[in-house]
Amino acid sequence: MLRTIFFCVAALSTFTTAVWAELNCTAVPISLAVANSTLSSGVKRRGVAVTLGTPPQKFSLTVAATYNNTYFQEGPVTKENCPMDADTPAARCITLKGGVFDRDASFTWLPQTKQSFRGSSQDFNTVLDTFDRGQEVLSTSEFNLTNYPVGLLSKYTGDAAAHGMLGLSLNSTLLETLVAEGKISSNSWALDYGWSGYDSTWVDGALTLGGYDKSRFQGDLYPQDFSIQSNGQVDQECALKVTIESMVMTNSSGSVDLLPGGKSEAKLACVTPNYPLITLPGTMFDIFNQNMNGKYSDDKRSVGAFYLWGFVDSGTPYALCFQFI
Ligand SMILES: *[C@@H]1O[C@H](CO)[C@@H](O)[C@H](O)[C@H]1NC(C)=O
Ligand SMILES: *[C@@H]1O[C@H](CO)[C@@H](O)[C@H](O)[C@H]1NC(C)=O
Ligand SMILES: *[C@@H]1O[C@H](CO)[C@@H](O)[C@H](O)[C@H]1NC(C)=O
Ligand SMILES: *[C@@H]1O[C@H](CO)[C@@H](O)[C@H](O)[C@H]1NC(C)=O
Ligand SMILES: *[C@@H]1O[C@H](CO)[C@@H](O)[C@H](O)[C@H]1NC(C)=O
Ligand SMILES: *[C@@H]1O[C@H](CO)[C@@H](O)[C@H](O)[C@H]1NC(C)=O
């Protein structure tokens, strides 16, 4: 269960640039709900609802900080592009992928070559291997884009991050397209994931494009650039880094801090909204598990409704890994 708000100014903008959209009302920021939407399988999934193609096919996308393009899983569901077996029937694969796109069922699909593609060509490098390119009609509750460049994940990979996502990195095709069409004023975005979790009252989040929503955070805004590697590229593994000094877990008999040492034990955490697994360093997992009365002692992996964006803890193997869906 997590309520996280992250504001991200693409490129090396200053704080002044970040609030510019607020001062200039010619194109106000766009807000898209981060909420449950129903996929073609009839299953609900939390994410940003978009449709692709004509007639429209339904998707629920995550937000990715290390990709520029907008990606969809290629469909229809087959053994090649979805892991269809007894554990993962088609409906589950469709949910995991945030929907699968059937290009043959759309009459507005325009295939593109690597050369003619107007999106980013270098996006995929080591993380996800291949993608096909095309142009399609992309719609949300707030805008319609025609001839919008999208990537299709043409092969199944076991990577948990390989699913439909809105790439909002430095040269995001979505942000650049919206700015070019005058629909937003700046290449910036903010994400409030909302609140989700087992038995709790869900609160919808919001993805704000071209600015941020003041009502969705408390305190002062802290602008932060993407993490850049020495070669000038955005850090593919972790573009958005935060330091966590305290993480309070509450069970029915009390509360405990998973980082009892406070500042002296501060951990670097990675904000990767497109990676749907929780991972915690071993020491934190052990305290967590004590408060769960040792429930996860076996393989330290379980499936349950608990969610946190991936932690980075160099040297320590992932100790806890809950699957979100
Ligand atoms: C990508 O973004 C950077 C930073 O804003 C900019 O300098 C560069 O020209 C962009 N690249 C492309 C291909 O648009
Ligand atoms: C607002 O944006 C428009 C269009 O980009 C620009 O022409 C105008 O000068 C801006 N106004 C202010 C006050 O920044
Ligand atoms: C997008 O296009 C559809 C179909 O033409 C239309 O019904 C809808 O109002 C449009 N949405 C926006 C936000 O312009
Ligand atoms: C969203 O969907 C999940 C899974 O179907 C469900 O558990 C949850 O209650 C739903 N939340 C809302 C607010 O509809
Ligand atoms: C696309 O995104 C990556 C990773 O965030 C970045 O390093 C790269 O420069 C971008 N590609 C282009 C063509 O702008
Ligand atoms: C809550 O955690 C404490 C340890 O911190 C444990 O003794 C207690 O049994 C836990 N309660 C439940 C209901 O799991």
UniProtKB/TrEMBL annotation:
Keywords, comma-separated and alphabetical: Signal
Signal peptide segment: 1-21
Source domain of life: Eukaryota
Keyword NADP: no
UniProt keyword Ubl conjugation present: no
Domain Peptidase A1: 46-325
Name used for this protein in its record: Aspartic peptidase domain-containing protein
